[in-house]
Write a structure and sequence with these properties.
- The structure is a homodimer.
- Chain A is mainly beta.
- Chain A has two domains: 1-48, SH3 type barrels, CATH 2.30.30.370; 51-259, Fumarylacetoacetase-like, C-terminal domain (Fumarylacetoacetate hydrolase, domain 2, Alpha-Beta Complex).
- Helix content of chain A is 13%, strand content 39%.
- Chain A has four helices and 19 strands.
- The longest helix of chain A is centred in the first third of the chain and has 11 residues, at 64-74.
- The N and C termini of chain A lie far apart (44 Å).
- The A-B interface holds A 52, 54-57, 60-61, 81, 83, 85-93, 104, 106, 126, 155-157, 159-160, 163-165, 213, 215-220, 223 and B 52, 54-57, 60-61, 81, 83, 85-93, 104, 106, 126, 155-157, 159-160, 163-165, 213, 215-220, 223.
Chain lengths: 262, 262
């Protein structure tokens, strides 16, 4: 099943996506819901970000091939993470599918995509084990952890490098019933495949991250955990590009790229 | 004027605090509001966190005496921040005044307070200058950036070191009309003053942080910017302590400290 959040005229609602149709819900997949009999053509509604997280976690470094690629690019030794430390991103940067990634005029770049699987929390949870970890997850969506590599080097924190407005496209839908450890994620630019990986290559599994987080933190419905990217993240994003993160059961997270005028 | 958010039985509402009385509001200080004629004794309502931020910014290193103290404690050279890089904290960790700071059973410590001034955003804002920066601010509250120093060293990110559940007490109220660059903040443990500073000692002013953030990020009503701490942050917090962050125009953010049983 695929849940999405949609806008029609000034009204927003959750729905279940079936092919090119949306069955509207009363309520939300994060609480109780039922179909209310209204149906929309997907083309007649605007797709919104699937949720507004209360806490926005990201795994950061979680795939060996990406870490090796990044180290080589910087001329640094390869250093694998020793444990599942999570980072944070911020809601100001969220953008729905179809909305532009805007590169600020003063960015010297490169600006790059990072296509990621995102676990969406459906239930309040603490002190889960790896065996019970996925019991709190409603489903999975996709994220693009857009990154500015020069700011990533120059800033003490990753604020600008990762969290400029529009730099966290997320969506399009939340798919239920998937195995997060065996999904093929592909990244296309201008219709051409430029990168891809299977989530089985995570260094620390989704289950491990969730168990570790919930030792110290309560997960809340709507929280999201971005699970990292593998592979190289090239070519750089340029004005006029269209970047797509694709997973066949979730859908296509599509972002035109625009460079702001000074 | 001091705005607060309160709970009475199962109902929550905003109010204006006058001495030991709360005048209830319809609406919220982040949108439109009016007093509705209902009045409560402060002692008859529970004070909640004054807002649930959409984006939770923190200045991190922003006072010289604290940076010098921390460097000396670690035996490292003093290194002042070169620019106003912001970090993030997470909503799971928020706690209202009166609610306990809970130290997890596996923390080896030390766990320390960091008493901070917090700017609360009232209006959507982007591309502000230092001269216009404070125009988006509704008012100021207090925060306690509780920190676990061993995890701060061992973790690649500050997730556990700063964001365990209950480790971000915030409140009690949002005071309007203050000059953020000239406020005395004091920290008391068990009724005794243990640290204090004037906010005029910020390395980068509140205005500078806001102008820098809004070059890249839209500020939203309810967003908070924690502005850092000065001075040493000792003695360490222990089970049974009561830690208070005090500023005379805002009030007292009071947190009992509890160590979780293994």
């Amino acid at each position: 099943m695929k849940f999405g959040r949609f806008q029609h005229q000034s009204r927003s609602f959750y729905g279940i996506v079936e092919g090119d149709r949306v069955d509207e819900l009363d309520g939300s997949p994060f609480a109780t819901w039922k179909t209310n009999g209204k149906t929309h053509a997907l083309s007649a509604v605007k797709t919104l970000i699937p949720c507004e997280p209360r806490n926005f976690y990201c795994a950061g470094l979680n795939y060996a091939a990406h870490i090796e690629w990044a180290a080589k690019r910087k001329g640094l030794p390869v250093k694998m993470p020793e444990k599942a430390d999570v980072g944070y991103r911020s809601n100001n940067a969220l953008a729905a599918t179809g909305e532009a990634i805007v590169i600020p005029a003063d960015s010297t770049g490169p600006v790059q995509f990072e296509g990621e699987l995102v676990a969406v929390v459906g239930k309040t949870a603490k002190h889960l084990t790896e065996a019970s970890a996925l019991s709190c997850i409603l489903g999975y969506t996709l994220g693009n952890d857009v990154s500015e590599r020069s700011w990533q080097k120059s800033d003490r924190t990753l604020w600008r490098a990762k969290n400029c407005d529009t730099w966290k496209p997320m969506g399009p839908y939340i798919a239920t019933g998937l195995d997060p450890m065996n999904l093929d994620v592909e990244i296309h630019i201008n219709g051409k495949r430029v990168a891809g990986y299977n989530t089985s290559k995570m260094i620390f599994s989704a289950q491990h991250y969730i168990a570790e987080i919930t030792k110290y933190m309560t997960l809340h419905p709507g929280d999201v955990i971005w699970l990292g990217t593998d592979d190289a993240t090239e070519p750089d994003l340029k004005d006029g590009d269209v970047c797509e993160i694709i997973q066949k059961d979730i859908g296509v997270l599509r972002s035109p790229v625009v460079r702001a005028k000074a």
